[in-house]
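Progress note, sequence design subtask.
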């Protein structure tokens, strides 16, 4: 399972699933701090037994300062393919009190699918719903289930994003 959380900070862009969303605060981190894409990367690498996002893209490595998480996802997908796996399913949850993500789900889905090399014509669609987060919304997080199959197996590819 992939998981990521970043603190919100004023003066940063809010990028989720590769989509820049208008909001007074953004996510703090070395790269663009895209929690959804980071959770996908962690899940993909972990399911293949290849470590986590920090092992492949160390947070103290200046090469990744301001990097697009979608570029990191494409690289992680190549690493996983080289190990003999391919992504066949992504099921994710973004936990956020605000902003509303529903209007951005289509673009997020396309971005993540493209980074994973998935066929957009073969995806599950879910109706988004809002989750209430108690307390002060100081963090934004995402979690993901196991998304891999060995290249020796065949399965339909699909990606779905639920908020």
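Output:
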């Amino acid at each position: 399972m992939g998981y990521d959380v970043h603190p919100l900070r004023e003066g940063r862009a809010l990028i989720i699933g590769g989509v820049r969303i208008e909001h007074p605060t953004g996510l703090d981190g070395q790269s663009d701090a895209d929690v959804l894409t980071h959770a996908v990367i962690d899940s993909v690498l972990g399911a293949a037994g290849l470590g986590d996002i920090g092992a492949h893209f160390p947070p103290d490595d200046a090469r990744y300062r301001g990097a697009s998480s979608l570029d990191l996802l494409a690289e992680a997908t190549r690493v996983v393919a080289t190990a003999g796996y391919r992504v066949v399913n992504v099921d994710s949850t973004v936990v956020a009190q605000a902003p509303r993500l529903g209007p951005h789900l289509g673009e997020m889905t396309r971005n993540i699918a493209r980074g994973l090399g998935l066929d957009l014509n073969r995806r599950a669609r879910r109706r988004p719903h809002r989750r209430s987060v108690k307390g002060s919304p100081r963090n934004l997080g995402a979690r993901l289930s196991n998304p891999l199959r060995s290249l020796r197996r065949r399965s339909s590819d699909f990606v779905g994003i639920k908020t």
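The longest strand covers residues 2-10. Work on this subtask will continue into the next period as scheduled.
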